[in-house]
Amino acid sequence: MPDQIRALVEGGKATAGPPLGPALGPLGVPIPKVIAAINEKTKEFAGMQVPVIVKVKKDRTFEVEVGTPPVSALIKKELNLEKASGNPKAEKVANMLIEQAIKIAKMKEAVLLSNDLRGAVKTVVGSCVSMGILVEGKDAKEALKLIDSGEFDVKIRAGKTELTKEELAKLEQEKLALAEATKKAREQAEKKAQEIMEKMTGRERSEIKAALKEAGIPADIIQKLLPVEAAAAPGAAPAAGAPAAGGAAPKAEEKKAPEKKTGEKK
């Protein structure tokens, strides 16, 4: 059974330093050759952390097995996204073409629980639902229905993954437009929330929060404008009868037992 070294490396940028170098040294393999093999196999994942396994045999020959980053990481890399949407139902952050979904599906096909490329593509598109990403300009759930109906069968069967410069440029423009639309929508939501809160001045927090939810205000905006009551400032005396921060209401002062005089029998 060969020795196995497992590590997480940046795609195309593995080095002879930790964690690989110190682990490979005692096994007697040519470390520069191992590093070169890893970088060649992981270069398509530049900028991402990639799991690798180096198997070293008794004759000091080696094999490199490369895993792939999670689907969500591959989607963000493909679309040049820093993060997914924090409110995926209402706020979309990018649009993905079916060719890009096919490209990611082919990277992950071996480990995805699907019987064919079409199923792998559906898994990728399904991940877009929770990330706030459109697919072919449509909600990801709608795109899944189109895949089931055969809308993209020709491209999927062909394994088409190439995009033109014009298509890529258009996707970037759409991403900027979505970001601007999200910004305006959030500004409008905050303004609406402020109006509701002003009308409900003096009402219980729970009532105000319920009204904001009913009006469709995003949860993070509600939290921002209606934070949980802050604890009393350090050193400040609580109001009469008010519970101490994080504790129960103070108990009534207990009467002290009379002190026994010296020599008094117990």
The rounded distance between the terminal residues' Cα atoms is 79 Å
The CATH class designation of the largest domain is Mainly Alpha
CATH topology of the largest domain: Arc Repressor Mutant, subunit A
User: In the CATH hierarchy, what is the superfamily of the largest domain?
Assistant: Ribosomal protein L11/L12, C-terminal domain
Strand portion: 5-15%
Rg for CA atoms: 30 Å
Order of helices and strands: EHHEEHEHHEHHHHH
Strand ordering within the main sheet = 1-2-3
Instruction: Look at the helices and sheets and give the structural class.
Output: mainly alpha
Q: What does the average pLDDT come to? A: 84
**Tally of helical runs:** 10
**Helix proportion:** 40-55%
How would a crystallographer describe the biggest sheet?
Answer: 3 strands, antiparallel
Number of strands: 5
Give the overall shape, derived from the CA principal axes: elongated
Descriptive account of the structure:
This is Large ribosomal subunit protein uL11. Residues 232-266 are annotated as: Disordered. The chain contains ten helices and five strands, in the order E-H-H-E-E-H-E-H-H-E-H-H-H-H-H. The relative contact order is 0.08. It has 266 residues and is mainly α. Residues 230-255 have low confidence and may be disordered. It has three domains: 3-66, 2-Layer Sandwich (Ribosomal protein L11, N-terminal domain); 71-163, Orthogonal Bundle (Arc Repressor Mutant, subunit A); 183-225, no CATH class. It has helices at residues 20-24, 31-42, 71-79, 98-108, 117-129, 140-148, 153-158, 165-199, 205-214, 219-225, and strands at 3-10, 49-56, 62-66, 94-96, 133-135. A three-stranded antiparallel sheet has the order 1-2-3. It is elongated and about 80 Å long. A hairpin with a 5-residue loop joins strand 2 and strand 3 (62-66). Helix 3 packs antiparallel against helix 4.
